[in-house]
Design goal:
alpha/beta, 2 domains, 5-stranded mixed beta sheet, 4-stranded mixed beta sheet
Length: about 280
């Protein structure tokens, strides 16, 4: 028999629900019940081979419970208490980034690459459970979390650190884009229309599809742009566009994910019209 003591009734009920919903043939061989007084306990037993029940039912259910409930709780506490982000929207955004890093959706981040080289966090939990659940045992779930999952908790803190770094970079980027957008929408356009082509390199064309040379682009760059932090005024893409502030930019590319393409769209919003390269080839003939 395995007896698990929970601190709160709701925790025991949720775990019990996960246990009942577990999709494995051996789940039907498990006998479980909840006791609320004098302690909150979940008792699990089986008439069959208990080792098989532990590996196919108990460990997967506890793993799911820890990831879906404990992990979320710990991460929220770390964001608030370790890193002092008290705003709920900031907490939500950091949590979202952290979970994306954990799930491998932020592979472009150096910190994420390094963290994901280690043992996956679900494997860390599973190994701790395998070492602990070796037969009949009675234990406090809170004590198990505190003493058996220290490395896992430390890993979560590392994920949060990486997420906060990424969140700060995103905030800086958004502020940068907003400053450029305000600049563009607050000045008169030097040209109504610019055609911008990206095919391995950026090329500018006027409304009549005459190419604008690099020398001309340098000449057009507004000296006032040096006041905008983080803007590379030597750049012959963003700086000339900001200076020209066209009412319409036709962006021709087959690489929609290019960073500068996305930045231009974020700055110019409805003024930027994204088109495939074939559209430029047809129009410029």
């Amino acid at each position: 028999m395995i007896t698990i003591q929970f601190r709160e009734k709701k925790d025991a009920v949720l775990f019990f629900q996960y246990l009942k919903e577990h999709d494995h043939p051996n789940t039907g061989l498990v006998h479980a019940n909840i006791i609320f007084e004098p302690e909150v306990l979940v008792k699990i037993n089986s008439d069959e081979c208990f080792d098989a029940i532990i590996s196919t039912v108990m460990i997967p259910v506890l793993l799911k419970y820890i990831i879906k409930t404990v992990e979320v709780k710990w991460m929220k506490e770390m964001i608030r208490d370790m890193f002092y982000f008290t705003d709920e929207e900031e907490q939500r955004q950091i949590m979202s980034i952290a979970r994306a890093i954990i799930e491998g959706e932020k592979q472009e981040l150096p910190a994420a690459i390094k963290l994901n080289e280690y043992m996956p966090r679900d494997a860390m939990i599973e190994n701790a459970l395998k070492d602990f659940l070796t037969g009949s045992v009675s234990f406090s779930f809170e004590s198990f979390l505190q003493f058996r999952l220290k490395d896992y908790r430390f890993r979560l803190a590392r994920y949060i650190e990486a997420a906060i770094d990424e969140y700060k970079l995103e905030q800086e980027y958004q502020n940068f884009v907003e400053n450029l957008r305000n600049y563009v929408y607050g000045k008169d356009a030097l040209m109504d229309t610019v055609h911008l082509v990206y095919d391995k390199e950026f090329k500018f064309f006027d409304r009549n599809f005459n190419e604008i040379s690099k020398e001309q682009l340098r000449y057009l760059i507004d000296e006032q742009l040096v006041k905008i932090e983080d803007l590379d005024v030597e750049s012959l893409v963003v700086a000339p566009l900001i200076s020209i502030a066209p009412r319409t930019i036709y962006l021709y590319t087959d690489d929609d994910d290019h960073g500068l393409i996305q930045t231009i769209q974020n700055i110019f919003l409805e003024r930027a019209v994204l088109l495939p390269m074939t559209a430029f080839q047809k129009k410029s003939k």
